[in-house]
Structures are given as C-alpha cells and as structure tokens.
Specification:
transferase, 15 helices, globular, Nucleotidyltransferase, domain 5, disordered C terminus, six-stranded mixed beta sheet, 18% strand, alpha/beta, Phosphotransferase, 462 residues, single chain, Hexokinase, domain 1
Length: 462
C-alpha cells in the first residue's frame, strides 16, 4: 500500500521508451535549428562552431600548461606530450577551490584568483621563466570567434560573476596575468570541456568523434559535416560542434515532462528559465530534486513519521553525491539520513533509495535520448546503414554513480539500434584534452603562424 502512494510521486519521473523517442525527435529539430544561418539566434540548443577540424595523429609532442574551470574547483596542470609513447603525461597539477562569494562576485576577482593560482603553480614547478602554450578549458556557453577568442554567452553551474558575460574570457585571463606582472604565457587555445574530452580520448581511439560530460553540468560535442554548419563558409571536411545541449527545452519544448519539483528547482536557481535539460540531469541539481521530493513525502506523512529536519528543509543540503552513496547500499542511506537529523526506520531508508534510483535513472535515460540523437545524426550524415563510433565521457555523475553508465548505455542501444557505440572514460579530458588541442595546433601551424588549419578562422555568419 505504501509503495502505491510512493509511486504516485515517482510516476512523473518514469519516462517510457516512446517518450524518450519523442524527446530525441525534438532534439533533432533543435540541432538543425542551431546549425542554421538564420535560425541559430532563436535556437535553444546553440550548436556553437569550435573551429576544431582535426584530431590528434600521434606525432604531437612538447610541454604545455592547461587550465580547467568548469565547476566549484579550478585546476592548473603541467602536461608533457610524449610522441614515442603516444602518451599525454600529467607532470603535476594543483586544485584551487572557488569560494561561493567569488562565484557570485566580480569577474576581475575571479580571474585574479585564477592568475594567482597559476602563478603559485608555476613557481612550485620552477616554470616562471618559461613561456609555455596554454590550453584553457572554460566549460560555460561561449561564442567562439577564433581559437584564442571566446565570448561568454551566459554563466551556468552556480556562477554569476559580473562583467564577464559578453566579454572575451581569454582577454580577461591575460589581463589578470599582466596585472600581476611576474610571469607570462604563450599562445592560448580555448577549449570547452566536451571538446577536450573528445580530443583526449581521440589520442587513444581514432574513432572517437563525440565528447560528453555528465558532471556538475552536462554537454556534448561531435564532428559535424561542415556543409551543414550554415553559419560557416565551406563545403568540405568536418568541424567539432559544441552543442550546449543543456539549453534544450529552454523554449518550452520539454514542458510535458517537467515535474512540479523540476519547476521549483528552476525557479529557485540563479538562472530561472535557462538550461532546462541540464537541471533535469546534472550533478548541480539532482540532489535538490531528491530533497524536494523527500520534503513533500514527509509533509504528506509518507516518510519519517511525517517529520522533517532543519538540514532536510535547507536547500542544497542533500548533496548529489548522497544519491550515488545511497544507491550503493542501504547502510549508506541510514548513515546519511542520520547525518541529516532525520528520524528514520528501515522502510524509510528503502523508500529514499527508490527515490534516488528514480531520479538518477531519469537523468541517465534523458542523456541516452540526447546521445542517440547525435549518433543517429552522424550515421545519417554519412549515409551509413551502420555506424561504429566512440564517445569520450567525463563527469562525476557518469564516473561515480554505481548504475548510471550501465543504464545510459542500455537505453542508447534501444534508441540508436543502428549505432555501435563504444564508451571511453576520459583520462582528464578537460586538463590533458586542453593541452592536446594546443599540441595539435602547434604541430600543424608553420613557425611564426598563429594557430592551425584545424582552427581555420573561416568566416562566421553572426
């Protein structure tokens, strides 16, 4: 009887295969709209050209720096590409946290913090006297104008720094470094984390043509036929497109599958009405969806004898990592519920586990629908009856959740039956991958030139 009542709350989160196919069809239309010369302005899925037109060939070599800003931590890496071993070797790295007040402060404060962290790292590695090329992974929606010029469209993932939206983030980084005056950097390649993931996996597997992130946020990139990228002149070859699929649904196209809890998460976020798809899928929001469900079920006397706790009533207190831990075992569920100050019994722990499983399952299946859309598009683009391809994947939700990857892969097989997809977990795509993009650029460009054919500054229709 209790389960029947619980199912009433969970049913809206259970998406049938037919509904997932509908979602895939809607995304397919949005991809085309985003690629269009005249329609991209109003497209929810932005389909941003990256100017990356080649993948590694194994001859890249040299020392590089990489910066990775994509969530609540910021990383600096010193990377060596070793041609003889065809390896990207991380020599050393440093993680700097970004305080909440800095995520909501000024852009100058944020970039000064990044420059300080980079300077301290160079000092520790005795690299301040060198001017090394740098790959900058900046995992937010940007309009890439050139490989070293990228304009922030909007902040996501809890950031809201003033004076950055509409500005060139490479310029802001360089200005912060110059304000310090104690070191310099070489040429900069601006890289989205999905592109870095694809490139780092492409060094190991030449058939890797899709990158996917399911972590704090979610996004994907893939190799599109350049003749279909209507904003860019040219007919031959391919270009990596940064889909920014987190914005899918921002035009209301997913309204029929949004629950009341999704709507509360959106309304109480710092960017209401934006990144609808991401808010149903990514680590930034999954914990909050579960918390809202648990509060509602407790208020309706289905959990915890009708009682809540201060922690459960506090937004953000039910962390997304708890979902993975709870699904990994009931003992974990009991520890977490106790830590949250809740008066639970074994049935409560089982129900909480079921809630977590339902929310993470919806996330995995929605990701699968989106990935199937891209895989099917590549297959049709190339006129193939059957596509064999590799997806480079990164992100804590994919990596750390006990069932997420299996559920996603099973759903993709059903939604893209003519695609044979291998999943390759990235070895630090946003760090090593950024260095690899820079390494490919260094390899192809002639001495004295800026960056390469793979980043050909073709005319872009704005």
């Amino acid at each position: 009887k209790l389960l029947c009542f619980v199912e009433k709350y969970l049913e809206p989160f259970r998406l049938s295969l037919e509904k997932l196919k509908e979602v895939s069809v809607r995304l397919k239309k949005d991809l085309i709209r985003g690629l269009g010369k005249h329609s991209h302005h109003r497209a929810a899925v932005k389909m941003l050209p990256t100017f990356v037109r080649a993948t590694p060939d194994g001859t890249e070599k040299g020392d590089y720096l990489a910066l990775d800003l994509g969530g609540t931590n910021f990383r600096v890496l010193y990377v060596r590409v070793v041609e003889e071993q065809q390896k990207v070797v991380k020599m050393d790295s440093k993680i700097c946290s970004i305080p909440q007040e800095m995520m909501l402060g000024t852009g100058e404060q944020l970039f000064d913090h990044i420059a300080q962290c980079l300077g301290e790292f160079l000092e520790s590695q005795d690299l301040k006297g060198q001017t090394l090329p740098l790959g900058f992974t900046f995992s937010f929606p940007c309009e890439q104008k050139e490989i070293d010029k990228s304009i922030l469209i909007r902040w996501t993932k809890g950031f809201s720094c003033s004076g950055v939206e509409g500005q060139d983030v490479v310029k802001l980084l360089k200005e912060a470094i110059h304000r310090r005056g104690d070191y310099d950097i070489g040429s900069v390649a601006m890289v989205n984390d999905t592109v870095g993931t694809m490139m780092s996996c492409g060094y190991r597997d030449q058939s890797c043509e899709i990158g996917m992130i399911i972590g704090t946020g979610t996004n994907a990139c893939y190799m599109e036929e350049i003749k279909n990228v209507k904003r860019v002149e040219g007919e031959d070859g391919r270009m990596c497109i940064n889909t920014e699929w987190g914005g899918f649904g921002d035009d209301g196209s997913l309204k029929d599958i949004l629950t009341e809890f999704d709507e509360v998460v959106d309304q109480t976020s710092i960017n209401p009405g934006v990144h609808t798809f991401e808010k149903m899928i990514s680590g930034m929001y999954l914990g909050e969806i579960v918390r809202l469900l648990l509060v509602k079920m407790a208020e309706d006397k289905l959990l915890f004898k009708g009682e809540t706790s201060e922690a459960l009533l506090t937004p953000g207190q039910f962390e997304t990592k708890y979902i993975s831990e709870i699904e990994d075992g009931l003992e974990n569920a009991q520890k977490i519920l106790t830590a949250l100050g809740l008066n639970w019994d074994p049935v409560d722990a089982c129900v909480v586990r079921l809630v977590c499983d339902t929310i993470s399952s919806r996330s995995a299946r929605l990701c699968a629908a989106a990935l199937a859309t891209i895989s099917n598009r590549i297959r049709v683009n190339r006129g193939l009856d059957h596509l064999k391809t590799t997806v480079g994947v990164d992100g804590t939700v994919y990596r750390k959740h006990p069932n997420f990857s299996e559920e996603l892969q099973a759903a993709v097989r059903l939604l893209a039956p003519k695609c044979d997809i291998t999943f390759l977990v990235s070895e630090d795509g946003s760090g090593k991958g950024a260095a690899m993009v820079t390494a490919v650029a260094q390899r192809i460009w002639l001495p004295g030139c800026m960056l390469s054919f793979i980043f050909l500054p073709i005319f872009v229709y704005i």
